Amino acid sequence: MKAIIAENLSKKYQEVQAIENVSIDVNFGEIFGLIGPDGAGKTTIIRILTTLILADSGNANVNTFDVVKDYQKIRKSVGYMPGKFSLYEDLTVEENVKLFASIFNSKFEENYNLIKTIYSQIEPFKNRLAGQLSGGMKQKLALSCALIHKPKILFLDEPTTGVDAVSRKEFWEMLIDLKNQGLAILVSTPYMDEASLCDRVGLIQHGKIMQIDTPTKIVQDFKHSIFGIESNKVYTILELLRTYQNTYSCYAFGDKIHYIDKRNKFDIMDIQNFLKGNKVENFIILDNVKPTIEDCFMDLMRHQ
Amino acid sequence: MRQILLIIIKEFKQIFRNRILLPLIFMMPIIQLLILANAATFEIKKIKLAIIDNDKSHISKNFAYKLQSGDYFKIIDYPNSIKDAEKLLETNSIDLYIYIPNNFERNLAKEHTEKIGVVVNAIDGSKAGVSFNYLLNNIASYQSELTKTFGNKINLQIAQSPKIISNDYYFWYNLNQDYKIYVVPGLLVLLITIVGIFLTAINIVREKEIGTIEQINVTPIKKIEFIIGKLLPFWLIGMFELIFGMIVARIVYHIPVLGNPLLIIGFASIYLTLVLGIGLLISTASQNQQQAVFISWFFMLIFVLLSGLFTPIENMPPLVQNITLFNPLKYFIEVIRLVMLKGSTFSDIKLQFFMTTLYSLVINSIAILVYRKSS
Fold first, then answer.
1. If interface means Cβ-Cβ distance under 8 Å, which residues of chain A face chain B?
2. Could you say which of A11, A48, B139, B274 would form a disulfide bridge with B360 (CB–CB 3.0 to 4.6 Å)?
3. What is the band of B41 on the pLDDT scale with cuts at 50, 70, 90?
4. What string of H, E and C letters represents the secondary structure of A216-246?
5. Is residue B163 over pLDDT 60?
6. Residues of B in contact with A103 (CB under 8 A)
7. CA Rg, chain B, in Å?
8. B19 to chain A: closest CA residue
């Protein structure tokens, strides 16, 4: 039994095609990541699956229930954490958690164990108004509220956007912990580095899913060899390489440049000579850079 | 039911935690009744007056003295010519002037009839009207006084104006024409309308604006339960405000409550469902609190000005009178005045009851329909 099955979902907002023929499936005990830049359609997919909006076409089942016909049943069995903090800022931490527990007709005390690891971190501030919490604590509170009714499936829309690196790491540890308890988790994120923490990812761009696989498989499937170029003149080199006849692709990657050549076999001196011929001196070329999800993403975008 | 209760409890927690809203809810009725009831008055006193006395006789001086003896007129000047008087009028030094012709006393004694001129500054139309009417009353009473003095029927007229009829006004249900008795019941209606429309509209759109509705929508709470849970607290606050305001009105202004106060409360309970429905409709139509406030204010202004609270509806042009049929405030103001001041019973206000109930059903059906569609 799959936790989530979506088939050929499409949704249009006025003139904008938000998503087109999106099909994904998520198993229980699995973290599925929707990876893509802002405006790729991640939120739209999550909002359709959480029964907040209707798709124009396609079907979807969540926890075996149809998102249109049985939306009431779905709402009982899923937890949702919107991209924007959406709890009551003028209620305290404890009041928020208890409110959402009782809305789902469950007791805070009964399900306390489920959220214990997360909630215990904000429990010292349980009498503080939610609006006065820091960004990381707000995320933890939101996750607590999404989990308090013991959902089987968890939807998280960009849960780590705007959260510091330490809190992000902690947050993902919690998600992996929840997954190990058997929950199905659908998480969206614009951060490519978080992809490796998912069991499977769907790379999405302009409303279309480009590839779905495990992060390792996606990286393995990457056929090109990448050269890294380090320099203090990244921008100049990028501009030059774009005019170079043998360039397959080149793009900024962190503070480096990733370069892929059209030819399968070639001498690294070719690039060196080309750059030096154009009066660029200070650079180091690294051979055999290990591809990441971001490299795969960039490559997939080229083919779209 | 349980879900509705949860939302109500949440609402009250939020309201009681709101440092601005809560004091306002309690202070508003007191401030409105104590300050506005005193400020909003039609009574005009100390009307500034000039008299061009060309006769300078005993009678003409006596007439001026009589005018000033009341509380209403204050003689500022005795100009010598119309030109001087006009100047005073233009500089706003006076509100009106009277022209007493030559041989005023002689003509009254011999011909038993005389005309005087009156010019009123009509920049403030209602003040001009009231001033003129006061003057007519004064002239009429002076006329009957003269009749006694001369022993003949005296006819004192204002030039180029219809002849003066001695009016004996008698205001039923408000014997002393105390403006407060007239305005305070209306203010009570205004009060609970503000609570109903503004607070509801802002409160519901707030959930949309800050996104909490997203989180609520993914829970098993049904939309109708959510709406009722959001509206009911304001229904209760509105009822509280009305009863609280009625007590203030009774204690401070001794406003008579001739009819059954329960009738007013009963009517208010239906009336509030109507204004809450309007608030709900506004909140579904708007995307943020700014829009909600602006739309609420737009309707509120129309409702108040066309309610009969300050200007009698009977004085409005027929077209506008028809528009007032869609004004919920009009019905409640009629009812509260009828019941409080006249002692009307249910059978007298059946029409208002029917209209308000019907109106409420229509508005709420539309509001719920639109609310469902919008999200």
1. 50-52, 72, 75-76, 78, 80, 82, 84-91, 95, 99-100, 102-105, 145
2. B274
3. low
4. HHHHHCCCCCEEEEEECCHHHHHHHHHHCCC
5. no
6. 3, 6, 216, 219-221
7. 28
8. A90
Which residue, chain included where needed, has tokens 């800050």? B210
Nearest CA in chain B to A145: B215
Q: Is B86 exposed, middle or buried (0-12, 13-18, 19+ CB in 10 A)?
A: middle
Give me chain A's average pLDDT, please.
Answer: 89
Chain position carrying tokens 């919107």: A82
- What is the predicted ipTM? 0.78
Q: Give the minimum alpha-carbon distance from B276 to chain A in angstroms, rounded to a whole number.
A: 23
Check CB contact under 8 Å for B18 and A90.
yes
Distance from the Cα of A180 to chain B's closest Cα (Å) equals 24
Q: What pLDDT score was predicted for residue B162?
A: 35
In which region does residue B90 sit, left (phi positive, over 0), alpha (psi from -120 to 50) or beta (all else)?
alpha
Count of beta carbons in the 10 Å neighbourhood of residue B154: 20
Q: Residue A130, Cβ neighbours under 10 Å: how many?
A: 24
Q: CB distance B220–A78 less than 8 Å?
A: no
- Confidence at B62, pLDDT banded by 50, 70, 90: confident
φ, ψ at A118 (rounded to 5°): -80, -50
Give me chain B's average pLDDT, please: 84
CA–CA distance, A153 with A187 (Å, rounded to integer) = 11
Q: What is the pLDDT of residue B160?
A: 56
Residue B315 is classified by DSSP as G
Q: How far apart are CA B189 and CA B340, in angstroms?
A: 13
- Whether A28 shows a pLDDT value over 70: the answer reads yes
Of B17, B217, B219, the CB nearest to A104: B219
Domains of chain A: 2-220 (3.40.50.300), 226-303 (3.30.70.2070)
Angle at alpha carbon of residue B373, lines to B367 and B375, rounded to 5°: 105
Phi-psi region of A10 (alpha: psi -120 to 50; beta: other; left: phi over 0): beta
**Signed CA dihedral, A266, A267, A272, A277: sign only:** negative
Query: For residue A80, which residues of chain B lie inside 8 Å, CB to CB?
Result: 214-215, 218
- Quick one: pLDDT at residue A272? 83
Inter-residue contact B155 to B116 (CB < 8 Å) = no
Share of chain A above pLDDT 70, in %: 100
Q: Cβ separation of A82 and B219 shorter than 8 Å?
A: no
Distance from CA of B248 to the nearest CA of A (A): 32
Q: Tell me the average pLDDT across B83-105.
A: 85
Structural domain boundaries in chain B: 2-40+176-374, 47-158
Q: How far is A75 from chain B (nearest CA, A)?
A: 5
Fold of B47-158: abc type-2 transporter like fold (3.40.1710)
Measured distance CA(B353)–CA(A264) in Å, rounded:
87
For residue B209, pLDDT beyond 80: yes
- The string of pLDDT tens digits covering residues B214-269 is 888 888 888 889 999 999 999 999 999 999 888 888 888 888 888 899 999 999 99
Are residues B215 and A75, on separate chains, in Cβ contact within 8 Å? Answer: no
Contact A84 B211 (CB under 8 A): yes
A-to-B residue pairs, Cβ atoms closer than 8 angstroms: 56
* Residue from B104, B131, B110 nearest B119 by CA: B131
**CB-CB neighbors (< 8 A) of A90 in chain B:** 14, 17-18
What token pair was written down for B69? 């003896």
pLDDT in tens, A149-188: 889 999 999 988 878 888 888 889 889 999 999 999 999 9
